[in-house]
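Fill-in record for HET-domain-containing protein.
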Amino acid sequence: MRLLNSDTLELKEFTERDVPEYAILSHTWQDGEVSFQDMQNGNAKEKPGWQKIENFAKVARECGYAWLWVDTCSIDKSSSAELSEAINSMYRWYGNAVFCCAYLCDVSEQGFYEELDSRASDWDRGFDYAFRHSRWFTRGWTLQELIAPAKLDFYVSGKEGWSSLGSKESLQEKLNSITGIPKGVLVGKHHHRSFSVAQRMSWASRRETTRTEDMAYCLLGLFEVNMPLLYGEGERAFTRLQEEIIRVSDDQSIFAWTSLSKEEDARGLLARSPAEFRNAHESDRD
């Protein structure tokens, strides 16, 4: 596992048994993110994404954390073996982090005031509008990044670096309203395993990924299964995910999906995507 030193911003590789305490970043990708290759060839500071890393490091230092993990530059994505291992380990890595910083790149302190003036009669309504419409809540990968960490705080761009909006514990009511995830799961009182497969699928039903296959791969940790990555397989990835879940679980709710097309002829037993579980948030195991 490669971690960034929060002071020097240099990468260091650790064996699994020697990994120190670390903070982890949750974010949505933008143009010009810093890659592992950028860190190696010295181009990192020239990329627009470097400021994101600097701001995260500043937050980590202020919180007393010496090591950081950032998905864009801590994984060598040119290695298919390393990428596969990382994606299959991602839920565990977020769960093992002592602190997760969730950065909402499309929300800012100034944005709150603008919404306050144009759409809301008070601060709470302005905050609620800006917060719940963040792209972060629409992406597939950020689902596990919200659930897995014990400690997660939300940050937005401020006048001097990033400003904290609060923790997922303090914001649990809003998060439940936005995501449909039970508050007990959000704050760690209830394990996600205590909810049916269909219910967990419903949490991902309104989320998207850039690549079709990632809509399956981003759910591996939530269902505690592992499988190889085969980019190019399209919707077959989600079929394989369901087959793996069936192999390790007798939860019949996996069949509690509803086709998105009303004009479709008969088809197989398995869903095409999490979107077909949109109405399964109350489906029990049997």
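KEY FINDING: The longest strand covers residues 99-108.
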